[in-house]
Structures are given as structure tokens and as C-alpha cells.
Specification:
Layout: H1 21-25, E1 36-37, H2 38-54, H3 58-74, E2 85-86, H4 96-113, H5 116-132, H6 161-173, H7 177-184, H8 190-194, H9 198-202
Antiparallel strand pairs: 1-2
Helix pairs in contact: 2-3, 2-4, 3-4, 4-5, 4-6, 6-7
Length: 203
């Protein structure tokens, strides 16, 4: 963690992280990429907060909350919501995954710290998500906002079942069951169309 942020791992040597201490000692550790991604950082916050409850370990919880506060402070998009990367240029923005991951982290932080500010921020972020990412023609949450960073694959708007499921889960936690149902029922053929990606949806 740097200044409370969790940086991206280097995938150049994926076998390194499955080795035990003795195995790692025989290899050179891969470099850590100098990039911090909002979605990955938020999911790390969720993981640490779960560990803080299960172990229990208040230090882990405090580390998670600090990281979340840095994400909120540095990852806000001036146009609303969260960006995808922190620091440097270009800063990709307008992606659904960043919004729903941070919303989940905010709700986890609220439950751990009992701080109403996290709950209110999660509500605001999900309000924005339902407003800006909802497909008004066919229904369902789309993975990006039109007109943002339309390069390559980013020019195509898709429905991602895993991200939609995470959004629905957070909506349920806020008591917004009708909206959660709308999100989930936008995937009527999820078993046939999404295979193992349906696992998050089923949960």
C-alpha cells in the first residue's frame, strides 16, 4: 500500500504468488505496476473488512477504511461517480464496474465502522449508477456511459452480469428491492448465455 492505496500487481509472473516462502525466495519478485485501479482497490477494501470481522482484527479494518477514503478523495470523477484509475493521465472514467465496486466497499465500511457518511455516499453512487448506466431502451445496466473514452472495445456498450449482480446486492442492502429486481430480471437467459459468470448472479 502506498499512501493508503493498493497498487496493481504485475501479472508478468502469475506463478510467483502461488509459491510458498521457500519457492519465492528462489525467484525474483515481479515488479508492482505503479497504477492504482478503483475497482480493484475497492474490492481489496471489501476483502480486508471481511477479514477484520472474521479474525477479528481492528487494524485490518482501519487500513481498509483509510484506503477507501483515499479512493473517494482521489478517484472522484468531476462529471460524477468514480474514475477507473488514480493519478496520471489518461484517466479512464464512466465505467459501471468502478461504481458498483466502490458502492459495495462503502456499505461494508458502513457496517464495520457504523459511519452514516459511508451509507449516504453509497446511496448517492447507486442513484448515479441507476440514472446514468440504465439502458432506457432494452433495460439493464450497461457497462459504460456513452461518450466517454470511446477507444477500441470501449466503444461497445455491454451488459456484464457480474457487475449487475454486485449492483443488485448493494441495492438490496439499501432496502431498494424493486430496483434490484429490475437489474436481475434484465438477464432472463442467464444460465444459457453467461455460463460460469452466472455464479455471482445466483448468489
Amino acid at each position: 500500500a502506498a499512501r493508503g492505496l493498493f497498487l496493481a500487481g504485475q501479472a508478468a509472473d502469475p506463478e510467483y504468488y502461488i509459491l510458498d516462502a521457500a519457492g519465492r525466495a528462489k525467484r525474483t519478485a515481479p515488479e508492482v505496476a505503479p497504477a492504482a485501479y478503483v475497482d480493484g482497490g475497492a474490492l481489496t477494501v471489501c476483502t480486508l473488512l471481511r477479514a477484520a470481522v472474521i479474525l477479528p482484527d481492528d487494524d485490518l479494518g482501519a487500513t481498509a477504511v483509510k484506503a477507501l477514503q483515499v479512493l473517494l478523495g482521489e478517484g472522484r470523477d468531476p462529471r460524477g461517480g468514480m474514475t477507473h484509475t488514480l493519478g496520471g493521465e489518461p484517466r479512464v472514467s464512466g465505467l459501471l464496474r468502478d461504481q458498483v465496486c466502490v458502492a459495495a466497499a462503502l456499505l461494508d465500511a458502513y457496517e464495520w465502522a457504523a459511519d452514516d457518511r459511508f451509507y449516504a455516499e453509497a446511496e448517492r453512487l447507486l442513484d448515479l449508477t441507476m440514472d446514468r448506466f440504465w439502458d432506457q431502451r432494452d433495460g439493464g445496466l450497461l457497462d459504460r456511459i456513452t461518450g466517454r473514452d470511446e477507444l477500441g472495445e470501449l466503444s461497445k456498450r455491454r451488459r456484464r452480469i457480474g457487475d449487475a449482480a454486485l449492483a443488485a446486492r448493494s441495492l438490496v442492502r439499501l432496502g431498494r428491492h424493486d430496483e434490484a429486481k429490475r437489474v436481475l430480471t434484465s438477464f432472463p437467459d442467464y444460465r444459457e448465455d453467461y455460463g460460469h459468470h452466472s455464479a455471482d448472479y445466483a448468489l
